[in-house]
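Hi R.,

Here's the chain you asked about this morning:
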Amino acid sequence: LLTSPTPDKLERCRVLYVSPLKALAYDVDRNLRAPLTGIRAEATRMGVEVSPVSVAMRTGDTPPAERQQMLRNPPDLLITTPESLYLMLTSRAREMLATVETVIIDEIHAMAGTKRGTHLSVSLERLTDLAEHEPQRIGLSATQRPLETIAEFLGGGDPSGAAWSPRPVTIVDAPKEKQLDVEIVVPVRDMTRPQDDAPDADDPAHKSIWPAMYPRLL
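And the predicted structure, written out as tokens:
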């Protein structure tokens, strides 16, 4: 979005971010704005030209005035929920979704195998039918298992041929095993009498082991 030319005003919505929870959607919205501002500032400092990237959120709590503003000026990246996506696809807002190129589904495990997941699958197929080009689907989760089943849910089926066939999905899995370097450190000679190693053994505050730990932590 930063490096590609800015499209016409009504064709700017290119990334759709679907969150199962409104609270998570608010977090994503807030956590996107600061990095985007920082990237623009750094690009200006380096003399690099980048395209402006606008972010907006559409949930059941979005005021009507903001919804109308989105129709007039679609954002580059729209954050929404499965239910709001369905409502957009059944209203005038569907027009701004025709240019979506990427759909990101966060916490996909929370919806797979549920009625909300089935509902979302239908919405994704409707979005695919509406879009000028079939959007790339990206599913995110730290706890999705089994991966193959979640991948099949994400891809859905391609009904364009003579028979239904699953779309190919690439699984990107982080390493499961972590190498840990663990060391046990005892900061005093006798943990039952931590005050013995304190500078002032008579100070009541030194009855705790913490005064001996603070210097090591610092």
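The chain has a mean pLDDT of 87.

Let me know if you need anything else.
M.
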